[in-house]
Amino acid sequence: MAEPIDEIIQRVLSVYKGWGRDTTVAQMRADWDLLFGVEPMQPAPIMERFDGVEAAWVGRHDLPKDKLFVYLHGGGYQVGSLRSHFDLICRLSEASESIGLYVDYRCAPEYPFPAPIEDCLKVYQALLEVGSSPDNIAFVGDSAGGNLALATTLKLKAENLPLPAAIGLMSPWTDLEANGESYVTRAGSDPIHNQKMIRRMAFNYLGGADAAQPLASPLHGDLSEMPPVFIQVGDRETVLSDACDMAAAIKAAGGEATCQVWDRMIHVFQQFPDELPEARAAIDGMGAFLRKHIIQKGTGS
Asked: Nearest-CA neighbor of 147 among 261, 231, 86?
């Protein structure tokens, strides 16, 4: 009998294998939403624009909006949506006892680097302008969204703006050059991603920009004085080094970083909580991290 993780892998591959050179980005986005999305989205998200950027309040609407996590979705900067990540954000909201704010940042190829960073900066600064404290805001992102959470933080640092209280990352993509050791050591165990695919997604996102620059590859950035960072990654992932090397670099710069490596798990396994007890446990762990830094810390408890 196939184990749940094996069934999930086959489900994901059934989508990936259907994509070829002639598959449009629009079709990829639709397929991605069907793979991960839920209908109807309940409790219904509450849409709001922040300095022209569309966003959505997701999860526990009974909770205050001044203690929140800003959620940045993955999908290689090309796919992913509110629908594909709605269930995960709702579960994180419940686990963290805080409301999520999903950012509908612009994606490539229509809007290449650094458009997503610009959108995230606008939303974050708008939150501060209406009275939210950075001490009560966390950034949370998966895959490319993890890259975006780190890049936005580095941009805030460079502009001497207040940083979020914490950063939570799931399978973060931190090196767009894809030079990490795990691209070799996990080449045979990652059933979904490989170095060639990762570099192709980076090329599509960067639009000719240098992949080594810190806002594209935060692993190369100035990581001093970063907020606490909590990372979860699967042991089978080609981006394993992206996660572990980032945690090590933050600690080497004097910061606080934790990297949990989950045995046998695949890329952003947290998106399968109905099937995987590991996903449920990981979401609970991320929730505890967020509570510590944006709820308990913010109230002085």
From this structure: 231
Q: Residues 124, 164: contact at Cβ < 8 Å?
A: yes
269-280 residue pLDDT tens: 999 999 999 999
Instruction: Yes or no: say if 259 and 231 are a contact pair by the CB < 8 Å rule.
Output: yes
- Number of domains observed in the structure of the chain: 1
Residue 295 — pLDDT band, cuts 50, 70, 90?
confident
Q: Catalytic residue positions? A: 143, 237, 267
* pLDDT given for residue 1 in this prediction: 62
* CATH code of residue 138: 3.40.50.1820
Backbone phi, psi, residue 240, to 5°: -55, -45
- Picking from 219, 220, 221, 222, the residue whose alpha carbon sits closest to that of residue 231 is 219
Confidence of residue 297 (pLDDT cuts 50, 70, 90): low
Reduced DSSP (H G I as helix, E B as strand, rest coil) percent helix, strand, coil of the chain, to 5: 45, 15, 40
My answer on whether omega of the bond before 43 falls inside 30° of 0, hence cis, is yes
Residue 118 structure tokens: 């610009």
Angle between helices 25-36 and 4-16 (to 10 degrees): 160
- Residues 291, 301: Cα–Cα separation, whole Å: 11
pLDDT of residue 296: 79
Pairing type for strands 68-72 and 99-103 reads parallel
Q: Which residue segment(s) compose the domain that 101 sits in?
A: 4-299
Which pairs from 195-204 meet CB under 8 Å and 24+ separation?
Answer: 195/238, 198/173, 198/238, 198/239, 201/76, 201/77, 201/78, 201/144, 202/176, 202/177, 202/178, 204/76, 204/77, 204/78, 204/108, 204/109, 204/112
pLDDT digits (tens, 9 = 90+) for 169-202: 999 999 999 999 999 999 999 998 999 999 999 9
Residue 298's pLDDT is: 43
The distance from CA 202 to its chain's CA centroid, rounded to whole angstroms, is 16
Q: Is it the case that residue 103 has pLDDT exceeding 70? A: yes
